[in-house]
Here is the input.
Amino acid sequence: MTTAPAGTPAAAESDDPDSALLQVRDLTTTFPVRSRGVFPRVTGRVQAVTGVSFDVEEGETLGLVGESGCGKSTTGRSVLQLIRPDSGSVRYAGRELVGLSAAQMRPLRRDLAMVFQDPFGSLDPRLPVSELIAEPLRIHAVHPDEAALRARVEELLGLVGLKAEHRNRYSHEFSGGQRQRIGIARALAADPRVIVLDEPVSALDVSVQAGVVNLLEDLQERLGLSYLFIAHDLSVVRHISDRVAVMYLGKVVEIGDAAQVYDNARHPYTRALLSAVPLPDPAAERRRRTSRVVLSGEIPSPADPPSGCRFRTRCPKARQRCADEVPLLRPSDPAGRHTFACHFPDGDADSAA
Here is the structure.
């Protein structure tokens, strides 16, 4: 698997770089900043996503984590071309998606689905559940026969743990967890291969989150799905992800197998995020308080990011080189499956050699 653009030290992770089902290379997405007034003009660009690269293998879950505003959701939407990126490459099953028109993307949307954060806001309250789930089937003419369409809707309801008689109800009649299950059923309607899950459990009660996560894992095993799982809850991400990518201010700063990232984090930002995750053992949590990494300052504006390493304004290890030179993703293991972008991961000058 490749975790950085070609030409960087961490460009190759696999002997076959074309083996991944979804390949994202050097993805960049910006938004215009406009002045106020009767005749607004563009005064700058917000750099939401800058040079992001990763792969998602068939049947794999890649977790994408970071603080709010780091560009996770924009990355997911840019991958699906719901937001058009400025530059970069997104290849699905070997086909380039960037630059395709809406008409050219339509047949591919059967294979690429999305589950949104807000299960209520993403469902039309005017339509019964049967129509919400059937809509993608009608758009893609998967089941033109009404009897087959109804059978498929009932099958999908069963897949996500709901009953067939729920099909005539409206979204406001369900709990948050049930509404998210409806959103998952809708995403599954056209038999996708890749699903982008944008904070799928963050709006749910903690007691409900585990059920939805377990459902996603069961569906992945049964249907062979690939997930891009976007979240800020590192506990949930560790539970469901095979690999994890950490984002800060629009850039991936660390990526690797979940166990490597969680047990041997190399980037200071990743370490800070992990140190904030509460431990289930109260005694261990008390012992850890003295070693907790507390970040100072605020996240810089993506309209005016710092030079060099974007994390340097909050990093306790920052030096002049961090301001002068953008750190590239480099491997921390011989196989190159765990990479990070830091000049001084161990806090000394020798680590940058």
Q: What stands out?
A: The longest helix spans residues 206-223.
